[in-house]
Design a protein that fits this description.
Blueprint (H helix, E strand, L loop, with lengths): L33 E5 L6 E5 L7 E6 L6 H13 L3 E4 L11 H14 L4 E3 L13 H6 L15 E5 L2 E5 L11 H12 L8 E5 L16 H14 L3 E4 L5 E4 L2 E2 L2 E2 L5 E5 L30 E5 L2 E8 L4 E12 L10 E2 L19 E7 L18 H23 L14 E3 L4 E3 L1 H4 L2 H10 L1
Parallel strand pairs: 3-4, 4-5, 7-8, 8-9, 9-13
Antiparallel strand pairs: 1-2, 3-15, 6-7, 10-13, 10-14, 11-12, 15-16, 16-17, 16-18, 19-20
Length: 448
């Protein structure tokens, strides 16, 4: 009924005036305290509790939410979970250039976001179709300034007993780019495992994904940054993009590794595009050697659900995922293709061995520093390998000094093996594990 066509600047229906967006910075908030607040021209009173650095601490985790009946259940489930904070790994409103849908998303998400802190990272649906992150940045500003990021699309913050880093899959990641340089600085200067034992990273596009959809899209980012994750001992990585749930074993460089992070792909929040289980002959891919699945893929399912990450103490966490809907493409399916019989449903085309399971639960254990030096509690700005190198240099200097003084007397004649360092003062050979525990640790502390 309007003149002009869709997308035409002469079409009055295409003109969008944003409502007034208010951004308020609250200062002096105390962890564990509950605060009430109100919004102008709204008679309701809301409240939230400021997350405290204590155990146990609960994160609700999701991504690719959108605005469907399943999305609504996702918000309801997250609120009922009563987490201290929700982490949403990108693809928020699925407005896709139709800006009024940002407003309708805000009304839908209010049931959660008005009461529980929700922290976001951007996804591709915040970028394409003319979005260019503009609506996302205006409505959901994140703490880029306090974390010394020059770009509001990546940030970090201590949240409870975790240092959370949020990266942008669509900013530069190679050496020398602003995001790469910022990540290095953040890990070296703002992450302190003495204060936050858990290190969590959130991004949109997964690095480890055995679903045929979006496979390999973040490979360059992985090659650019994975070594930093490993060096500083990232514990958990959250991602979305693929509309399914997948949990990996600890992994590094495409192989299981006890010192690598666990990857949780939680792009199963409920968006209108459906679960990622159709359009391919087999949605879940086998391993490179023909195995049923890659060695690092532990649980995978193409349905809708919500994740809960409970940090129990400094070394143990529990990950719990529960399905609340399947995607039904059968001939008698409803137009929305949603099947809320969560206990018994399966998504059409899901060839995973886990397709019929309604939940996944596992205890995550931070490995000991003796086993994984990247988990050591070290002075800020130093990684385990940095301290070992410093210790090696210091002990080499001491060896030269003492050798000059005592060479004739043959005070220390120990012969160390590969990968060991000689402490000439004690006449001991120390391994990396020794350097991070017991006598070697005391030596390191004296060196730094």
């Amino acid at each position: 009924s309007y003149p002009g066509t869709f997308g035409d600047y002469k079409n009055p229906a295409e003109q969008y005036d944003s409502p007034v967006l208010h951004t308020v910075t609250l200062k002096g908030l105390q962890g564990g305290e509950t605060y009430e607040y109100g919004v102008a021209d709204d008679s309701r009173t809301f409240q939230f509790t400021m997350p405290a650095a204590q155990f146990p601490f609960t994160f609700g985790i999701t991504a690719d939410v959108g605005q469907t009946q399943v999305s609504n259940v996702t918000f309801q489930t997250l609120k009922a979970m009563q987490p201290h904070t929700v982490l949403l790994a990108g693809d928020v409103s699925y407005a896709d250039g139709y800006f009024p849908r940002w407003d309708s998303y805000g009304r839908l998400a209010e049931q959660l976001g008005a009461y529980i802190p929700v922290m976001y990272c951007p996804g591709d649906h915040e970028q394409f179709n003319g979005e260019a992150f503009v609506n996302y940045r205006a409505r959901y500003p994140m703490p880029s300034g306090p974390s010394h990021s020059s770009n509001p699309l990546y940030w970090s913050r201590d949240i409870g007993p975790a240092h959370v880093i949020s990266l942008n899959s669509y900013s530069g990641t190679a050496n020398g780019t602003l995001q790469n340089e910022w990540l290095r600085e953040d890990l070296a200067t703002r992450f302190d495992r003495r204060r936050t034992p858990w290190l969590v990273v959130m991004m949109h596009v997964p690095w480890y994904n055995s679903n045929a959809a979006h496979i390999g899209e973040a490979e360059l980012m992985r090659q650019d940054m994975e070594w930093l994750f490993y060096k500083y001992g990232v514990n958990v990585v959250l991602a979305g993009h693929t509309h399914s749930y997948e949990r990996t074993s600890p992994v590094y460089n495409n192989r299981t590794d006890p010192c690598g992070p666990v990857y949780l792909n939680v792009g199963d929040g409920g968006n209108r595009e459906g679960a990622e289980a159709f359009g391919f002959s087999e949605i879940w891919l086998p391993g490179s050697g023909g195995e049923v699945r890659p060695e690092w893929s532990i649980f995978r399912q193409a349905t809708f659900g919500v994740g809960q990450l409970d940090l129990l103490n400094e070394t143990h966490a529990k990950m719990y995922w529960r399905r609340h809907a399947c995607f039904n493409q059968s001939a008698n399916a409803p137009p929305s293709h949603e099947n809320f019989n969560a206990e018994n449903c399966t998504t059409t085309g899901d060839n995973s061995r886990n397709a019929t399971l309604s939940e996944d639960e596992v205890v995550l254990v931070r490995p000991s520093p003796e086993r994984c030096p990247n988990q050591a509690v070290l002075p800020r700005g130093l990684a385990a390998e940095d301290l070992v190198a410093a210790a090696a240099a210091a002990m080499a200097t001491a060896a030269v000094r003492q050798g000059l003084e005592e060479e004739a007397q043959g005070v220390c004649a120990a012969s160390c093996g590969a990968g060991e360092l000689l402490n000439t003062t004690a006449c001991l050979c120390l391994s990396v594990a020794d350097l991070l525990a017991g006598q070697g640790r005391r030596l390191l502390e004296s060196l730094v």
